[in-house]
Amino acid sequence: MRVINCCTRLHAPSSIRLSFVRRNHSQTHSYRCVGHGNCSLSTNQMEQRNLSANTVIDHPRALTDKITLIRDAGPSKFQVIADFDATLTRYRVNGLRGQTSHNLLQQGNAEYDAKRQALYDHYHPLEISPVIPIDEKTKLMEEWWSKTHDLLIEGGLTYDAIKKSVENSSIAFREGVVELFEFLEKKEIPVLIFSAGLADVIEEVLRQNLHRTFKNVKIVSNRMVFDDNGRLVSFKGKLIHVLNKNEHALDMAGPLHDQLGVDTGEEDEDEANAYVKQRTNVLLMGDHLGDLRMSDGLSYETRISVGFLNDNIEKSLESYRQAFDLVYLNDAPMWGAVELVSRLFSTEET
Ligand code: TMP
Ligand code: MG
């Protein structure tokens, strides 16, 4: 891959400029513009700019190799697996923490909304803490999700309340998400949105915010069961939280793509699973280290992983840049991923 310097304009609307940066191995925790010997910015200025909307690539050569492999194999071998909250959606909206599929919900019962908010205030700092051991954190996340699901049922959530909540929400997609989906749809590349949020809410968010459907996009997430009065009575299947996405990847991905309008030509679940498994090259996108496990069930050949590091940047960057092939800092837009897939499968000569 061509490494792009900090003043290069990518395939994005003219107002958007992104930079690819890499670690300067001679200085711990220092970053520089690649190929920018003549850059007039001081290191500090560059760091500030880079931290505002940049991409960290720790091993550009390895990324180049992966791009070549995926491009050579072609779009029929490729799929995208993306987390939803704070990956497809923005972490901050109008300067405030954007809402997630969970916390946009207004149950129509203020007492229960407050109880769920109190859980968020307690558990979210634990979720993003870089110092809690993974086993301990997994238990905490299970606790949080179970308590929240119980409160949604007890508090009498209705489907109408979901629609109204989404109408009044401050959830927003990153710029470039629609363009990404459109490009992938044209190339008949399936997109799996794999979320520890709420499937029914995510569907409503897609409906209301994108104003169109994509036949290649499908959701694996916690799915609600409503009674005849449209009142939530239970959740289907096993609970999905931020740290157990791996357990669900294989069994849910197959049937999912079967339903999503992608013509697999296969009728049963096993064959549909086989269809997804044929797509052994993956672009995985997430904002959480646990999101890396979304592809566990696939025995992929080549995977490019993209991490959105939205918060706790100073403390978490080290682990993110080791774990992901590319790390987008500070709530970056989706144009880098758009650029990446168009570079992978562009019909134009590059
Ligand atoms: P994701 O898998 O789509 O990122 O969704 C999980 C996010 O949902 C995670 O970052 C925490 C968030 N969340 C809330 O905002 N409120 C809640 O009540 C729960 C359980 C999770
Ligand atoms: Mg997320």
List the helices and strands and how they pair.
Layout: E1 19-23, E2 31-33, H1 43-52, E3 54-57, H2 60-73, E4 78-82, E5 92-93, E6 96-97, H3 110-127, H4 134-154, H5 159-167, H6 177-186, E7 191-198, H7 199-210, E8 217-226, E9 232-236, H8 246-259, H9 269-278, E10 281-286, E11 302-309, H10 313-323, E12 326-329, H11 335-345
Bound molecules: thymidine-5'-phosphate and magnesium ion.
Features:
single chain; 350 residues; alpha/beta; Rossmann fold; DNA polymerase, domain 1; two-stranded antiparallel sheet; 40% helix; 18% strand; globular; disordered N terminus; binds thymidine-5'-phosphate; binds magnesium ion
Sheet with the most strands, sense and barrel status = 10 strands, mixed
What structural class should be given to the helix and strand makeup? alpha/beta
Query: Which oligomeric form is depicted?
Result: single chain
The N- and C-terminal alpha carbons lie at a distance of: 11 Å
Bound molecules: thymidine-5'-phosphate, magnesium ion
Shape from CA axes?
A: globular
Low-confidence stretches: 1-52, 257-267
The CATH topology of the largest domain turns out to be: Rossmann fold
Assigned CATH superfamily of the largest domain:
HAD superfamily/HAD-like
Strand content: 15-25%
> According to CATH, what is the class of the largest domain?
Alpha Beta
Q: How many individual helices?
A: 11
Number of domains: 3
Nearest-angstrom radius of gyration?
A: 20 Å
GO cellular component, one term: cytoplasm
Family: Belongs to the pyrimidine 5'-nucleotidase family.
Keywords: Hydrolase, Magnesium, Metal-binding, Nucleotide metabolism, Nucleotide-binding
Organism: Microthlaspi erraticum
